[in-house]
Design a protein that fits this description.
Layout (H helix, E strand, L loop, with lengths): L3 H9 L6 E4 L2 H12 L6 H7 L12 H13 L2 H18 L4 H7 L7 H6 L6 H15 L4 H18 L20 H11 L3 H13 L11 E4 L14 E4 L8 H13 L7 E2 L2 E2 L19 H14 L3 E8 L12 H9 L4 E11 L12 E9 L5
Parallel strand pairs: 1-2, 3-6
Antiparallel strand pairs: 4-5, 6-8, 7-8
Helix pairs in contact: 1-2, 2-9, 2-12, 4-5, 8-9, 9-11, 13-14
Amino acid sequence: MFSGSSVVSQALSRRGSVLGIDDSSLARVLFQATVIHAGRADCGALARLSLEAAPVKGPTPFGSLAAERTAVARREVNSLLRLYREAHGAFQVDYRPTGEWWDSTVRGSFPHVVEAHYGGHFFGFQQARDIDWLQHRIGQVEDEPTRVVGRALLLATASTIVAAPGKQFAQPLNFLADPPTAFVGARLLSDRTRDVRATFASHLAQFRTLVRPRQWDGSRFDQRRLPDMPETPTGVDLVYADPPYTGDEYSRFYHVLNVLADGGLFKLTMVHGVPTKGRYPSARSQSPFCDRRLAPQAFRELARDVRKLDARFVLSYSAGKALGSRDRTVDLDLLRETCQAEFSTVTLFPLNHSYRPLQPKNRRAPSASEFLLVCSNRGDS
């Protein structure tokens, strides 16, 4: 699991107060947990929650839970695949984006949101029920730092156990293909053996070692979509921005984590009357930086607003195009011109790392590079 906004904010919080801005609920929870509430949570209370077992009743039939448990224990991948295919077929037929579907499927002793939508899909049936139970119990915690940190640990848990390429949520492993590859079968079994409560406890142990940043007054998070800027206090020294590079919406890769971060009910996107393969929520965020028509103006607005703050501006972006990846929505020359229109000094710093898509066909492909544009009107860099 990764959120650039929270990682950069953690680093900057060692030097001063930070205003984190991101439209992702995942980023909000991680920022609050690591920048604002690190060292303040009752980790003992969270450890006790990790020992609680979820209730036995839920939307998944008991027979399916037992069959899943047996197939995983015996490493019978074909039995597991048949079970999930049947569940997927039934979901595609039965799902309706209505309150009646929620009332009949999701509600109960606690809301079975993840189990109803992603059991037998991104997660196993039991894994999904355990996630829902922890989500429910964490939501009942009255102490805000403990509740926020608990939710961050749950997001890390979901990211660790998900059966999906790259541990992201664009779509699950292709185990619905007939026949699936040996790799997919082995990976599915491996991910389904991961225990939610043990994984949560492991992330809690890691969180205990997190060095609490110096507590500067005023650090906060504003959930909004750039280039829309919030009312910002005076005296801002630095604005660091890392917008999307391509047409790939970040929300596509983290939508389940955003759902968990928000809690509550939601509707799935329907295409031709059925949910999409990734079972995306209908209210996913769309960034103007991902649209070639809108991105140039979005960058102009962002640079203009930062200039008005009389702050240094550091912009992280990518140049080039790796084989199999998307075109950049704005090229380097236009980006430099945009910054030069607002700042007297604009310096390009190439970064000493690069990347390419993970598919085997791209191993010998040219890689894309990243750089920083450092902009200032202060006569320095």
